[in-house]
Amino acid sequence: MFHRRSNSHQDHENSEVYAESKVKELRGAIGPLSGRSLKYCTDACLRRYLEARNWNVDKSKKMLEDTLNWRSTYKPEEIRWHEVAVEGETGKLYRASFHDRQGRTVLILRPGMQNTKSMENQMKHLVYLLENAMLNLPPGQEQMAWLIDFTGWSLTNSVPVKLARDTINTLQNHYPERLAIAFLYNPPRVFEAFWKIVKYFLDTKTFEKVKFVYPKNKDSVEIMKSYFDDENLPKELGGKSTMTYNHEEFSKLMVQDDLKCAAFWGSEKEVAPNPDCNGATSI
């Protein structure tokens, strides 16, 4: 007896054929590439840019070309840990040692632990961790998850609105479809004033990925825990893990990842060895 395929299966196949045709069209539109631009523009990469621009090839091409220009000048793959380690001393932003239930890399942000004033260095630190998160994605996985812990946050130690806007623009314009979900855990009421300004910088797709979680709101907690194993989540984020940020150990991990990054991109930029507990290095 023959069985007809389900409509959902057929629809999936049709959507994949459509996506492949659009990727091919975009690749033809951007023309020949070489060096790191060629390495960057994988089929999966092109697909992310297409998704970000609703499969409009012309808009996707413009977005991708802007990113390639940005990468050629900012050189995010050339940033090394010893250049930004001071930004990470308090653990205000780091890659978690666990993944979410989908195998995605997790970045933990603790804006209440802000320790520096230079917006340029703070952005450089963020870009470094975004590149590092991508470097540590498992095969077949394109996205990361953010956990934002508002313990200790106040308007006095919040980042300037300009930096928040630049952060959002960098994430949306140069790392499209890299963010799967962002949980804002227990933000204080005063954060609402800051959020009313910041949310206007978010496009619709990014805005829908931002979820507020309050410990006393069972529904919001359940949504977050559907993404993470209780045993992995730190206690301050409602989980059972007693893990704490260790800057010395994290620095050692980042130096090893710098070597992996240099090998991947074919960089000859020196990687500084032997980080001490302050994140400094001896060369």
Question: Which helices and strands occur, and which strands form pairs?
Answer:
Layout: H1 7-30, H2 35-40, H3 43-52, H4 57-74, H5 81-84, E1 93-99, E2 105-109, H6 119-135, E3 144-149, H7 161-174, E4 179-185, H8 191-198, H9 204-209, E5 210-213, H10 218-225, H11 247-265
Parallel strand pairs: 2-3, 3-4, 4-5
Antiparallel strand pairs: 1-2
Which structural traits does this protein have?
single chain; 283 residues; alpha/beta; Helicase, Ruva Protein, domain 3; Phosphatidylinositol Transfer Protein Sec14p; 2 domains; five-stranded mixed sheet; 10% strand; globular
Structural summary, described in words:
The protein is of the alpha/beta class. The protein folds into two domains: 8-74, Helicase, Ruva Protein, domain 3; 81-265, 3-Layer(aba) Sandwich (Phosphatidylinositol Transfer Protein Sec14p). It has eleven helices and five strands, in the order H-H-H-H-H-E-E-H-E-H-E-H-H-E-H-H. The protein has a five-stranded mixed sheet, with helices on both faces. Strand 1 and strand 2 (105-109) form a beta hairpin. Helix 1 packs across helix 3 (43-52). Residues 81-245 form the CRAL-TRIO domain. This is CRAL-TRIO domain-containing protein. It comes from Stylosanthes scabra.
Summarize the structure.
The protein is of the alpha/beta class and 283 residues long. It is built from eleven helices and five strands.
User: Which secondary-structure class do the elements indicate?
Assistant: alpha/beta
Shape: globular
The CATH architecture of the largest domain: 3-Layer(aba) Sandwich
- Mean pLDDT equals 91
End-to-end separation in angstroms reads: 71 Å
* Strand percent estimate: 5-15%
InterPro entries: CRAL-TRIO_dom (IPR001251), CRAL-TRIO_dom_sf (IPR036865), CRAL/TRIO_N_dom (IPR011074), CRAL/TRIO_N_dom_sf (IPR036273), PI_Transfer_CRAL-TRIO (IPR052578)
Organism: Stylosanthes scabra
Protein name: CRAL-TRIO domain-containing protein
